[in-house]
Description:
By secondary structure, this protein is α+β, with helices and mostly antiparallel strands. The protein has two domains: 2-94; 100-312, Hypothetical protein af1432 (Orthogonal Bundle). It is 47% helix and 12% strand. The protein has a five-stranded antiparallel sheet with strand order 2-1-5-4-3. A hairpin with a 4-residue loop joins β1 and β2. The radius of gyration is 23 Å and the shape is elongated. It starts with a strand and ends with a helix. The relative contact order is 0.10. Bound molecules: fe (ii) ion (2 copies). One fe (ii) ion (FE2) binds next to loops. The site of one fe (ii) ion (FE2) has 6 residues, from α4.
Amino acid sequence: MVFDSTFTIISANTVFLQTFNVKIEELGKRKADFLLYQSVTGISQFNTIPLDELQKDAYILMYIAEGMEISFCVDIFTIGDGVRGKYFYALMRDVSVMESRFIDKSLHALIKASLYKDNDTSVHLDRVNLYSRVISEHLFRHHHDQFPEINQFFIDKISVVAALHDIGKIGTPDWILSKPSDLTEAEFDVIKEHTVNGAFILSSLGGEMARDVALFHHERWDGSGYPYNLKEHDIPLCARIVALADVYDALRMARFYKNPLPHDEAKAIIAAERGGHFDPLIVDAFLETDQEFARIFNNYRKGQEAEVIEELFSV
Ligand SMILES: [Fe+2]
Ligand SMILES: [Fe+2]
């Protein structure tokens, strides 16, 4: 793609036009301002990057087309002076597959690191992925009108990033993590920071959904959660789904400060929080799929990590 110093697209090949939804008649008018979004930093830096900076090195541009994240490796060269000043050539290669493999591996390594720290087991994290996928698929198939933002990309993504909800606990002191039953207010404030810490850790990796899950999974539908007391639809959908998945699994698990609950008791607790802790429609989706939750919990216990991975990647 060729553009001038005002970022106006002068010419481009068909693949570029299709990918970025640019019509031939828009050449010479439409701006390629998306080149200025360096989402690799996790922060959109619109119009703040001078062209010579962009030209220094190839960079990764994350672009969302029809709900799909595409990663491009962008290289910009000067191709001489024209009537409208300097012209530039942007060579863009789709590196999505390479990028996503690299990101998946890095996220996996992060999760492994967090297991040394937290007393959560890897099957808990895998089960939270599986429940989140069950709810998302159910909403996609049966309640698409109420949840138009859910598509296949959303389902695939949440099935991986749900496990990252507590990644910020890497930054929580061990002595606080190991006494979760009897916390002072100050200690609980430190625990709460795992949400913000998680978003910080994921600021350059895993994309927006991973950050939202880490940051908002303790927000509650009625506004009584943390860290920001967000309410209802102000809480991103992915975090509303993971919140329920995480609580269900926590209720079913034995911890040194509590006994495990049978499925029906956990179900009743979640149902009672319809419109309280949880989004009412997500509770409805849970009540419509609760047997799947029970099956996942019963099938995947400690020592069965391999089967969980098989189920996650079988579709
Ligand atoms: Fe958490
Ligand atoms: Fe959890």
